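Prompt: May I have another protein with tokenized structure?
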Amino acid sequence: MKRTPFLAEKPNGLLVELGAELRARRKALGTSATVVSEAAGISRGTLHRIEQGAPSVTMGAYQAVADAVGVALGVREKMIAKEALPLEGDWIPVVFRVEDYPQLASLAWHIGRNGTLTPREALNLYERGWRHVDEEALTAKEKIFISNLRRGLEGTTDV
């Protein structure tokens, strides 16, 4: 039987907080544990342990889940960034809420503001409906998101 690594109380508390943050983000996205675990390349059991803040799970698995649900991890306040990505760089979320991107929400009226899309679906909506996008109303976050989608997905067949 594997032993749980010894951790001081504070780091263990941070893992519990991180697990709760990842679970809350998954729930906010309306995404099932099965979808997130598959996107992260881990089992549902490992996802459950991560959401509980288990110290025996590798940080790589925590990072994979964070990437799948769009939570930035880094050495900042309590090692958890509370704001969902993308902020900068070439990061693309696996699944995201339409309401996080106002111009996309106007293009995706048929799925509702609380709906979710994959990156490929989002890029297709932007490309097909670009004439309806108010470019002056694009937020910095949405501009970066569109740029990342174009760089990351153009010329690919699947995501």
Q: What stands out?
A: The CA atoms of residues 76 and 82 lie 10 Å apart.
